[in-house]
Write a structure and sequence with these properties.
There is one protein chain. This protein is α/β, with parallel strands linked by helices and 259 residues long. It has a single domain, classed as Aldolase class I (TIM Barrel). The protein is built from ten helices and eight strands. Strands 7-6-5-4-3-2-1-8 form an eight-stranded parallel β-sheet. β1, α1 and β2 form a beta-alpha-beta unit. The longest helix has 18 residues. It is globular. It starts with 5 loop residues before the first strand and ends with a helix. 44% of the residues are buried. The structure holds phosphoenolpyruvate. The site of phosphoenolpyruvate has 13 residues, from β8.
C-alpha cells in the first residue's frame, strides 16, 4: 500500500438524524475500545444528519471526518433543494463525494457538471472523492478502461497542482453497487492500475484509489490485499457499526502487514 488507507461510509438516503446519532455514537465507542491506527475514516451521512454527526464527532472526539454525499457547483442563489460548499464547511464537513453513479444516473449529473462541481469543491478547500465506474454493458463489451479514462480526463484535466493533495478516486462499477455482486480482485487490481496510469498522465500521482461495490466483512480483506486499492467506499455495510469497522480493520491489518 502506497498510502495510508481511507474508508468512507456512504449512508446514502438512510438513517434519520436520531438513527445517525446512534450509529455515530456506536462507532465512537467501538473505536475507543479498539483504536484503529492507520486508517482515515470518513462518514457521509444525508445532509439533514450532518449537524448531529459533526456535533457528536466533536464532543466525543471520535477519530473520523465527515463528508457530504453531494454538493452544488454554485456558491449560492436560486438552486432549490441544493447545498453549497460554504454551507458544508460551516458544519465542519471536510470531504465530499462527487459524481457518484446514483447522482449521474438518477439526477442527470453529466461529465461537465461533475467537472464543474469537483473544481468548485476543491477551490473551496474540500477533499473530493471522484466516483467513476462503468455500467454492465460496457464491462461486457470490454470497454471499461476507455470509459473510466474518459470520466477521469473529463473531471481532472487541467486541475491546478495545488489541489492534487485533496483528490481521491473511487472506482465503483455500477453493476457491483448495492447488488451483492462484487468485482473480482483481478478486475479491481487491473482497473486500479489503469486509474493510477491515467492519473499519472494527468500529473495527479498522489491520489488514493478506492474500490466500492458490495464490499462487506467477508470480501474486504481479500479485495484490499489483492485488488491493490488504498481503501473502500462502502454503502450498505456502512449502516452497521460492526460491519463498517470490520472493513476498516481489514484495511488497517493490510497496511500494517505491508509496512
Ligand atoms: C456506494 O454506494 O458507493 C456503494 C459502494 O454501495 P454498496 O457498498 O452498497 O454496494
Amino acid at each position: 500500500m502506497r498510502h495510508q488507507p481511507l474508508v468512507i461510509g456512504n449512508w446514502k438516503m438512510n438513517l434519520d438524524y436520531v438513527e445517525a446519532l446512534h450509529l455515530g455514537q456506536q462507532i465512537g465507542v467501538m473505536l475507543k475500545n479498539k483504536p484503529v491506527e492507520h486508517v482515515d475514516i470518513v462518514l457521509a451521512p444525508p445532509f439533514v444528519d450532518i449537524r448531529s454527526v459533526t456535533s457528536i464527532v466533536e464532543s466525543e472526539k471520535i477519530p473520523v471526518e465527515v463528508a457530504a454525499q453531494h454538493v452544488n457547483a454554485n456558491e449560492n442563489g436560486a438552486h432549490t433543494g441544493e447545498v453549497s460548499v460554504s454551507m458544508l464547511k460551516r458544519l465542519n464537513v471536510t470531504w465530499v463525494l462527487v459524481g457518484h453513479s446514483e447522482r449521474r444516473s438518477m439526477y442527470a449529473m453529466d461529465d461537465a457538471t461533475v467537472s464543474a462541481t469537483l473544481r468548485h469543491a476543491l477551490r473551496g478547500g474540500l477533499r473530493v472523492v471522484l466516483c467513476v465506474g462503468e455500467a454492465l454493458e460496457i464491462r461486457e463489451a470490454d470497454d471499461q478502461d476507455e470509459f473510466v479514462r474518459t470520466q477521469l480526463v473529463s473531471a481532472l484535466k487541467g486541475i491546478d497542482a495545488r489541489f492534487h493533495e485533496l483528490l481521491s478516486v473511487a472506482y465503483e462499477p455500477i453493476w457491483a453497487i448495492g447488488t451483492g455482486r462484487t468485482a473480482t480482485s483481478e478486475q479491481v487490481a487491473s482497473m486500479t492500475a489503469h486509474i493510477r496510469n491515467v492519473l499519472s498522465s494527468l500529473g495527479v500521482d498522489a491520489a488514493r484509489v478506492l474500490y466500492g461495490g458490495s464490499v462487506n466483512t467477508e470480501n474486504a480483506a481479500t479485495i484490499v490485499r489483492e485488488g491493490l486499492v488504498d481503501g473502500f467506499l462502502v454503502g450498505g455495510a456502512s449502516l452497521k457499526a460492526e460491519s463498517f469497522l470490520s472493513i476498516v480493520q481489514s484495511c488497517d491489518d493490510c497496511y500494517d502487514g505491508k509496512r
